[in-house]
Design brief:
Layout: E1 2-9, H1 16-30, E2 35-40, H2 45-49, H3 63-66, E3 67-70, E4 73-77, H4 91-101, E5 107-112, H5 121-128, E6 130-140, H6 144-152, E7 159-165, H7 171-175, H8 178-184, E8 195-199, H9 202-205
Parallel strand pairs: 1-5, 1-6, 2-4, 2-5, 6-7, 7-8
Antiparallel strand pairs: 3-4
Helix pairs in contact: 4-5
Length: 206
């Protein structure tokens, strides 16, 4: 069973995919853990940026094409075709996904498309193989209230954290700070109604 981290949000272009990758690199490289990074973004942005041009698991059955090792991280690409977003969860494909999830991963990190719901079959499949489930919700000032309401709808996570992006930032710089170690180690205790809101303004985390 794995520790699963779900990168979530209600806005595109806010840094979810980059945070997913940098967090995966950090855990794999500095903590020497076996990491599966799942590209569950509707546009497969992360796969394309990292040069993973194979078929997605949901639009092709060849695992050699959809699961690749990149920079010491195992990346699973789920789709090439946006129109398959909610139309391709047949049992055969989900069973193939579960066969990958059942491997001995220390961490599973899932970069998700905007506004995905907890009932999504991909999310539910990852839940089956998780002993700890962490949600990191990315927001800016304009979408903070909506993001908090969105996070409340995810009621089966073991912990929830909203990272508030206050200005243009470097995700790698955030990774080097203690705040993500605290999230990973579940040492943040100042929760309000089960939610922890974290500002990423450099003045706040330096």
């Amino acid at each position: 069973m794995s520790i699963s981290i779900f990168i979530l949000g209600l806005k595109g272009g806010i840094g979810k995919s980059r945070l997913s990758y940098e967090l995966s690199k950090y855990i794999s490289g500095k903590k020497f853990k076996k990491v599966l990074l799942i590209d569950n973004d509707s546009l497969s942005t992360l796969s394309n940026v990292l040069g993973h041009y194979g078929d997605g698991l949901l639009d092709g059955f060849d695992l050699r094409s959809s699961l690749k090792e990149i920079d010491g991280i195992f990346m699973l690409k789920l789709r090439n075709k946006v129109y398959l977003l909610d139309k391709s969860y047949d049992n055969e494909r989900l069973e193939q996904l579960k066969s990958i999830l059942s491997r001995n991963w220390d961490y599973i990190i899932v970069d998700n498309y905007v506004g995905i719901l907890e009932e999504n079959p991909i999310i539910r499949s990852v839940y089956e193989f998780s002993h700890t489930k962490i949600g990191i919700f990315i927001s800016d000032d304009l979408s903070l209230d909506s993001t908090i309401r969105y996070s409340i709808s995810w009621n089966q996570l073991d912990s929830k954290h909203v990272i508030l992006i206050n200005r243009v930032y470097d995700t790698a710089n955030i990774i080097d700070k203690t705040i993500l170690d605290l999230i990973l180690n579940q040492n943040l205790t100042n929760y309000v109604n089960g939610l922890n809101v974290i500002g990423t303004d450099k003045a706040d985390i330096s």
